[in-house]
Structure formats: C-alpha cells, structure tokens
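2024-03-11 09:14:02 DEBUG pipeline.ingest accepted 1 chain
2024-03-11 09:14:02 DEBUG pipeline.ingest length=249
2024-03-11 09:14:03 DEBUG pipeline.predict start
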Amino acid sequence: MEEELKPFWRKIFNFDWKFGLFLILLICIPRFALVLQANQTANYSWLGLIMLISAIVPFLFLSKKGRRKIGLKKPENFNWVIIALVIGLVFSISLYYLGVGLYGNSFENWYYYIGKSYNIPAGIDGEGKLILFSIMALTGMTFSPIGEELFFRGIVHSSMATSLGDRKASLIDSSAFALVHISHFGLVFVNQEWRFLLVPTIIWVLSMFCVSILFYICRKRSGSILGAILCHAAFNLGMIYCIFYQING
C-alpha cells in the first residue's frame, strides 16, 4: 500500500508531527531572517524564492497518495470555493479598518508599514497606480497563497494531523503561520533602527492566527487545498487594495 512519503524519505522520516516540526524549522527560520533582511535593505527579490520553495516542498517529499491527502485534488464542494473568496476579502478589509481605527496612518498600522515595501510613487497618476496595483495584486494572489497554503495547510497540517488530529494540527500550523509573520510586521525597521511594537504585534499575530484558521476551514469545507489558496488570495487582494486606494488614496 502506498505511503504518504516518497520511498527515499521513508528511510529518514515518518509522516507525523515530528516531520511537520522539521519542515516548520527548515522553512520558517530562514524565511523569518530573510524577510527581516529585506525590510532593512528594501530588496525583496528573495521573497518570491521563499514562496517557490514552500510550494515545491510537498512535491519533493510526497507520493501521489500524500499529495491527495494534503488536498491536491478537485474541490468536493464548489460553493465553498466562492465562500472562501468572500471570507478572505471580508477579513482583510475588516483588518484594514481595525488598523486605521487604532493607529491611523502610522507605522503601528500593519497595512501602512507593509505598504511601504510596495514603493508606490508619491505623484503617481491614476493609470500608473492601476497598472502597479494590478501587478502587485497578481503576484500577491499567486506566490504567497500557493506557497504558504501548500506548505502550512498542506504538508505541515496533514503530517501533524496524522498523529495529533486535525484540531491540534490546525492550532500548530496556524501558530507557526502567525509567528513567522512577525517578520512582516511587528519587528519593524523604521528610521534606520529596529523597533518591536508590542501591542500592535499582538493584534497582528492574533489576526494572522485567526485568518489561518479560516484558511483551514475553507480547505476542509471545500475538500481541497484550493479552498485555502483562494481564501488566502482574496485576503491578499483586499490588503493590497486597501494599501493602494485607502492608505495611499
């Protein structure tokens, strides 16, 4: 009977929580450091590579059975594919209003800080902004949703769930997802110095944890990893729209 891992990897690993933890450490620690470096140098070219590696991991380690187990299959409930899009968009826009309500247009606002990495020119006209927005939206709706969902809600969750169950696995993969996003916001590089924004970071991490749980629910309800990917893509679209047309309107 075919196992989840490819024959070579079965000599080294079992498809269990230890394997999931190994993957988290293997990918998330270098990613955290590289994102911090990108925030300091304003060179984000490595981020696409991180997402590409995250997307490749399941295909590197898993057999056909394993890939199906992580949700690489046709959705079983297409209604939840549409619901996933709505959930992601609504959560993202709600998070924008929370940030503006608490912190306005300051570096304590997660979208404001993240938006600085987009380098939107101050005097850009409407057509130029639309073109730049379209480029950022397209990349934001593909690279990180595919890479992160195949990794966190895919191979990490499924390996954890094999020995711990879905509920505990979801708590673990969502925690890892949330904590690694401190490198995107929380530990910030402002005016040539590092700052740790305690309260905004707590809010941001809790938000990333909650949206991660929503990604998992969309995967489970749709019967496919596509549900999680689309929910994540819609979340990113909402975030990028808010950065371009609300914060930098």
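2024-03-11 09:14:41 DEBUG pipeline.report The first strand starts at residue 187 and ends at 190.
2024-03-11 09:14:41 DEBUG pipeline.predict end
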